[in-house]
């Protein structure tokens, strides 16, 4: 029976592009993508993907506005062990809190804060936008999903993780910025795999094949 990937619909701006990319790789590995705002679908899913663009505050409020969704995600991921992928702000929502437009609580699945990118060199532009390297951390060299490569980024805030072991990959934009976080069956990527051409599709394929 084909696996079901729950792509959570909470009004995120990159939902459709992520859906299209997941459909392409899903067909290749025999998985079905379900765009859903139904907590019961999430509870029954084999894998969960949380997209996200825009402000941390707006995304957090949008997710919380769906009655029972955070509880369903938590149950399926932390109790059921389903592989989870957060993309861009979907990755940032894994943090303890975001500091965009004040302090807003995150899921607190991976301890840390989402802070404004403040490069010491004024020539470095914010937002961090365009293609950049993804470099795995030494302790994550055997990660089953993220690999060294080049991906597309678009963000003004970055994940400052409390525990360096939760950082799976870094990129550089005037300073080191977190490109991916990972713990157990939870993965978040700051870059946009749906905009990262062959590298992005390969990343999504590995996520769908990931055995935790």
From TrEMBL:
Its EC number is 4.3.2.10, 3.5.1.2. Residues 7-197 form the Glutamine amidotransferase domain. It comes from the Bacteria. It holds the Pfam family GATase. IGPS catalyzes the conversion of PRFAR and glutamine to IGP, AICAR and glutamate. The HisH subunit catalyzes the hydrolysis of glutamine to glutamate and ammonia as part of the synthesis of IGP and AICAR. The resulting ammonia molecule is channeled to the active site of HisF. InterPro entries: GATASE, Imidazole-glycPsynth_HisH. Heterodimer of HisH and HisF. It comes from Erythrobacter crassostreae. One of its GO terms (biological process) is L-histidine biosynthetic process. It catalyses: 5-[(5-phospho-1-deoxy-D-ribulos-1-ylimino)methylamino]-1-(5-phospho-beta-D-ribosyl)imidazole-4-carboxamide + L-glutamine = D-erythro-1-(imidazol-4-yl)glycerol 3-phosphate + 5-amino-1-(5-phospho-beta-D-ribosyl)imidazole-4-carboxamide + L-glutamate + H(+); L-glutamine + H2O = L-glutamate + NH4(+). Pathway: Amino-acid biosynthesis; L-histidine biosynthesis; L-histidine from 5-phospho-alpha-D-ribose 1-diphosphate: step 5/9. GO terms for cellular component: cytoplasm. One of its GO terms (molecular function) is imidazoleglycerol-phosphate synthase activity. It is found in: Cytoplasm. The active site is at 88 (nucleophile), 192, 194. This is Imidazole glycerol phosphate synthase subunit HisH. Keywords: Amino-acid biosynthesis, Cytoplasm, Glutamine amidotransferase, Glycosyltransferase, Histidine biosynthesis, Hydrolase, Lyase, Transferase.
């Amino acid at each position: 029976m084909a696996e079901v990937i729950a792509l959570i619909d909470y009004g995120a701006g990159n939902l459709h592009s992520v859906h299209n990319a997941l459909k392409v790789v899903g067909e290749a590995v025999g998985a079905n993508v379900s765009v859903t705002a139904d907590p019961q679908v999430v509870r029954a899913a084999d894998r969960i993907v949380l997209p996200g663009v825009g402000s941390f505050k707006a995304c957090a409020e949008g997710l919380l506005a769906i009655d029972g969704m955070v509880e369903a995600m938590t149950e399926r991921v932390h109790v059921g062990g389903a592989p989870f992928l957060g993309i861009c702000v979907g990755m940032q929502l894994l943090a303890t809190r975001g500091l965009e437009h004040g302090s807003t609580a995150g899921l607190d699945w991976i301890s840390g804060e989402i802070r404004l990118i403040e490069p010491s060199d004024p020539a470095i532009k914010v937002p961090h936008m365009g293609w950049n390297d993804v470099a795995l951390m030494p302790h994550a060299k055997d990660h089953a999903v993220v690999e060294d490569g080049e991906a597309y980024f678009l963000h003004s805030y970055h994940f400052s993780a409390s525990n360096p072991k939760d950082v799976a990959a870094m990129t550089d934009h005037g300073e080191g910025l977190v490109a991916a976080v990972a713990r157990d069956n939870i993965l978040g990527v700051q870059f946009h795999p749906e905009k990262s051409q062959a590298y992005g599709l390969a990343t999504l394929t590995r996520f769908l094949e990931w055995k935790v």
